[in-house]
Specification:
Elements lengths: L3 E2 L4 E2 L3 E7 L2 H6 L5 H4 L4 E8 L11 E4 L4 E4 H14 L5 E9 L7 H16 L6 E7 L10 H8 L16 H8 L7 H9 L2 H4 L7 H13 L27
Parallel strand pairs: 3-4, 3-7, 7-8
Antiparallel strand pairs: 1-2, 5-6
């Protein structure tokens, strides 16, 4: 296992991933998505804080970063950059920023990604490779549709696994509320995430490119050799976020 950490010149035998998240369900339950990685017994996942989604609108108040030639919005530095930097002060740590990419923002996804990356790169400097940005497309709830048995077990529905790429579902949360009127994104979402079979969700190499790229980045951070698990060896990756795999 590649377990060399650049902050401490020490070998790491256990890694901590700090999560910056934009969704309500994620604040309480998103570490459960990484349950199979934690079963390796070499890592843990914890939420650092909930952050506001960034978009490509121009911010007014800027913070000039001396020596970088860049400036970023004050609130972006305070809510994203500084918490990430604080978390990475400790050895054997990584930061993941997870944004629910709703359908009405998908056309701006490359620019939104660049904006997040600019904040992290500007604040983290030579530690920027220890942080990555990923999208849950289109919202975390999309992935529930790839494991219908789990949803049925929680909600008592009779769904079949979605035919096609769940990352193309326009409004998965709305779909769930139409199917089950009492759907509560935090209560039921937490129960679903307790049991969601991520290996099944990522079993089709032609679907879920964004989620697969997230898992591929985590596996590389952990020094794990790519295998057919999660189809990271040959499966489809996100054109927007996959470049980060070359930088870690």
């Amino acid at each position: 296992m590649n377990s060399h950490d650049t902050t401490s010149d020490q070998h790491c035998y256990f890694f901590k991933f700090g999560l910056l998240v934009t969704g309500k369900t994620e604040v309480e339950h998103i570490p459960k998505l990484f349950r199979t990685l934690m079963e390796l017994r070499i890592c843990s996942f914890e939420v650092i804080r909930k952050v506001e989604q960034l978009d490509v609108r121009t911010s007014v108040k800027k913070l000039k970063m001396v020596g970088t030639g860049k400036d970023i919005a004050n609130k972006e530095a305070e809510r994203i950059g500084f918490p990430a930097r604080e978390y990475l002060k400790y050895p054997c740590t990584y930061v993941l920023l997870l944004d629910d990419l709703e359908h009405n923002r998908t056309d701006r996804a490359p620019q939104i990604f660049d904006k997040y990356r600019n904040v992290l790169d500007t604040i983290l400097l030579d530690q920027k490779h220890r942080a990555s940005v990923h999208f849950l497309v289109n919202m975390l709830e999309a992935y529930y549709f790839a494991d219908a048995a789990t949803v049925n077990g929680v909600l008592g529905t009779s769904l079949n696994d979605y035919e096609g790429d769940v990352e193309t579902i326009r409004h998965p949360k709305g779909e769930l509320k139409q199917i089950y009127s009492g759907f509560n994104e935090k209560e039921h979402g937490g129960q679903i995430l307790d049991r969601l079979d991520v290996e099944k969700v990522l079993s089709d190499p032609n679907t879920c490119a964004s989620l697969r790229t997230l898992f591929a980045w985590c596996l590389k951070a952990l020094g794990q050799i790519p295998t057919d698990k999660y189809q990271v060896s040959s499966g489809k990756l996100s054109n927007i976020t996959k470049a980060q795999l070359d930088n870690i």
